Amino acid sequence: MRGGLAVLAAVALVSGCTQGGDSEVRPAAGQQAGEKARKEARKAEPAAERRAQRRALVAAAKRWGLKKVPLTPPRPPAVKPTITTREGFEVDGHDSLPPVFTTVPTRQKVVFLTIDDGAEKDPAFLRMMSELKIPYTAFLSDYLVKEDYGYFRKMQAGGVTLNNHTLRHPYLPGLSYARQKREICGMQDVIEERYGKRPTLFRPPFGNYNEDTLRAARACGIRYAPIWNEEVFVDRWEYREWDRKIRPGDIVLSHFRGREDWKGTMPDMVRRFLNKITEEGYAVARLEDYL
Ligand SMILES: [Zn+2]
């Protein structure tokens, strides 16, 4: 039984954010094989399954115009890293507030993709991410999401965690504590009501916050305030670091935007993102697995 569980866990890891349970290993119905044959079948099937998944991934990478097949992320660390506020990003009392960070402390060659706001609702983007098995985390603002809650429900069904980016995307440090709390707790309520789960991650609009922001976020049930170290657009990358280099554990920001806002589509942005990080030997991991 333990062997069987381990095999299932390994397959689940490989299948990433696949939709549905079609990667699960099930014994063939009505099979009369003895215990030994069954054991061997269990050993062989995952290998065959992995080969089939690999072929599908290679085909998807080609179909979506990637230069290389995206790398499979390593298993997340058994012991979660300790997340603290990045130096220079502290507010008074930050030790007891949700940490603000741009990079997850890890030596693994992984980056985390986070996508904000929610203006563009491109079905091709959902297909692309699902077929390429690329995890990402969404930070949603209700004034854009409410145009089509269903789009983000499909995203959630594909394994994406929907997180808090306020109701109306204001410049939070310009608001009182009470109004900031309404923006953050209000979005917690919307996400819980529409998607059944209260987020634990919050990203302040524009990355701007003050002590009140983080106190309000904590009061609304938020545990982490990830911002970003790079931002990827359809036509370029922008970097926080002076040397313009990607580092292990970096959080990368992008936006749900389409041709109205930039010269290309969501798949164009993902292509730019994946081509660069794959070339540099990075895999995309799921942020929630490290928190
Ligand atoms: Zn935003």
From TrEMBL:
Coiled coil: none annotated. InterPro entries: Glyco_hydro/deAcase_b/a-brl (IPR011330), NODB_dom (IPR002509), Polysacc_deacetylase_ArnD (IPR050248). Residues 35-51 have a biased composition (Basic and acidic residues). It comes from the Bacteria. Residues 109-291 form the NodB homology domain. One of its GO terms (biological process) is carbohydrate metabolic process. CDD domains: CE4_NodB_like_6s_7s. One of its GO terms (molecular function) is hydrolase activity, acting on carbon-nitrogen (but not peptide) bonds. Residues 19-51 are annotated as: Disordered. It holds the Pfam family Polysacc_deac_1. This is Polysaccharide deacetylase. It comes from Streptomyces resistomycificus. The lineage of its organism: Bacteria, Bacillati, Actinomycetota, Actinomycetes, Kitasatosporales.
